[in-house]
Design a protein that fits this description.
18% strand, 5-stranded parallel beta sheet, elongated, single chain, 19 strands, 16 helices, binds S-adenosyl-L-homocysteine, alpha/beta, 463 residues
Length: 463
């Protein structure tokens, strides 16, 4: 984003336009909608400029802009439609420390004016970084169709009413109130009874919504391994509708951005071993927020049902009588297999696949080592980094070949994804320098013969 959109306060400020011809008139049509006082410099003015000047809507100065004319101004527009004059005007602005725009010259401008949909006080600004004016116009047309022309008037009535609407709890109830006003009751009331009618509709609607009980809800959502594209549509929808998002450390910013801007975002990260939120406190927070009537999105990395303490959170919801649902996500093992171009099961190789954890609450986790050590076994080992030496020892003790392929998949689906194929014997060393979340794919090599051969894995056996 090279150009950052902001809304400038034009009240009691001055905007200077250099040029008084046709090109200036197009900009002036917009600028005259603001509260700024507008000064136009230029010889040979367009008739429209003279007309506006006569009506006192702008001040026309019948000469070219000169040093000092921009001092204290909010913005300068160079609209001479002539490169030399525009450059001069921009230099005068620069000397005065004022931002300048040269009409139709993106590169020499310090700001650009977006395409605008005006439903004052609702203003929609559309920018395409100058890349596609046609696109901007098309988007503008669509937004204009979407926003009824009465929206501006409704918004003014609503603005005055806002303090009274604070009687409703923030979140879902307030949203319901405003959305019903703007899109159902308001337009009708305005048509029938003008601004007074719209105000009366607000009063009635507020009582109505206040009387409706809003039920909180907890959605325990799988956020997938990190790439926003790997979210389910349902996860996206619930995330967008949530009043509060309570997420694990594994959920990246790119996914949290899909929440509404007003939504509260709370990270309840548990670092594997270090300090962090206690499960009881997380359970208590989820339940407390749902009891306030909020829609809670409890976002967990991967699938919530895989090493995600899902049971505890469901139990807490049930005990509190709070409604809940589980939304599955793509677990790290699935994403890791996909990144390797591999299948988790394969006819003739393995008829089952296991998801293991390297450690549990008491330390390194014990497993059915004898079956895991059998050739052809495929297992995805979660949280296995610290347990690597232990895993290697146990597996080899139970007969696993030291050349058994293991693939370390770090940060799967994220921009910094790394796939490190190795052999069981080399596993702890291969993990050195792996700092992100990693899943160890036991019994699987990447679908990439060259790399497998490099590290001495017999692909015929490994695949
Ligand atoms: N519920 C999650 C797992 C949580 S346990 C899921 O279904 O994926 C945390 C472990 O998951 C990490 O230690 C790591 O082994 C694995 N993991 C989570 N995200 C990962 C990612 N983007 N890349 C690789 N492994 C990941």
């Amino acid at each position: 984003m090279r150009h950052f959109p902001v809304f400038l306060d034009t009240d009691a400020r001055r905007i200077v336009v250099s040029g008084a011809g046709e090109c200036a008139v197009a900009k002036l049509r917009l600028l005259l909608k603001t509260q700024a006082s507008v000064a136009v410099f230029g010889e040979n003015p367009d008739r429209q400029v003279l007309d506006w000047a006569a009506k006192g809507r702008l001040r026309w100065v019948p000469r070219q802009i000169a040093a000092g004319d921009a001092t204290g101004a909010l913005l300068v527009y160079a609209a001479n439609a002539e490169a030399h004059a525009d450059a001069r005007a921009a230099a005068i602005a620069r000397d005065a420390g004022v931002l300048a725009n040269i009409v139709d010259n993106l590169d020499d401008s310090q700001f650009i004016t977006p395409a605008i949909v005006d439903r004052d006080p609702v203003t929609v600004a559309i920018g395409t970084e100058g890349a596609a004016p046609v696109l901007a116009r098309d988007i503008k047309r669509r937004i204009e169709e979407m926003l009824p022309v009465t929206l501006g008037r409704l918004a003014r009535v609503a603005r005055a009413f806002r303090p009274r609407a604070e009687r409703l709890p923030p979140g879902e109830a307030r949203r319901r109130f405003w959305s019903r006003f703007f899109f159902e009751r308001g337009p009708r009331a305005l048509a029938d009874g003008g601004a007074d009618g719209a105000h009366a509709a607000l009063v009635t609607l507020l009582d109505e919504v206040a009387a409706e009980r809003t039920d909180g809800h907890v959605a325990l959502i799988g956020a997938g391994p990190g790439a926003p594209e790997l979210l389910t549509l349902k996860a996206r929808r619930l995330l967008h509708g949530a009043d509060i998002v309570i997420h694990d450390r594994l959920v990246p910013a790119a996914i949290l951005e899909l929440a509404r801007r007003e939504a509260e975002i709370v990270e309840v990260g548990k670092t594997g071993f270090g300090p962090g939120w206690k499960q009881d406190d997380i359970d208590a927070l989820i339940v407390a927020k749902a009891r306030e009537g909020l829609k809670v999105a409890r976002l967990k990395g991967g699938d919530p049902a895989v090493f995600g303490r899902l049971e505890e959170e469901i139990a807490a919801c049930k005990a509190a009588g709070v409604s809940w649902e589980v939304v599955p996500g793509i677990t790290a093992a699935s994403a890791a297999a996909a990144s390797m171009g591999q299948s988790l099961t394969r006819r003739g190789r393995n008829t089952d696949v296991r998801l293991l954890t390297g450690h549990d609450t008491t330390g390194f986790a014990e497993q059915d080592w004898r079956s895991l050590a059998r050739p052809g076994t495929v297992a995805a080992i979660y949280m296995g980094k610290r347990a690597a030496t232990f895993l290697r020892g146990r597996l080899m003790l139970h007969g696993a070949a030291d050349t058994t392929p293991v693939t370390i998949v770090e940060n799967v689906s994220r921009p910094d994804q790394r796939i490190v194929p190795t052999r069981l014997i080399d596993l702890p060393e291969a993990l050195e320098g792996i700092a992100g979340p990693a899943t160890l794919m036991l019994g699987l090599a990447p679908h990439d013969a060259a790399r497998a051969a490099d590290i001495g894995i017999d692909l015929k056996e490994a695949l």
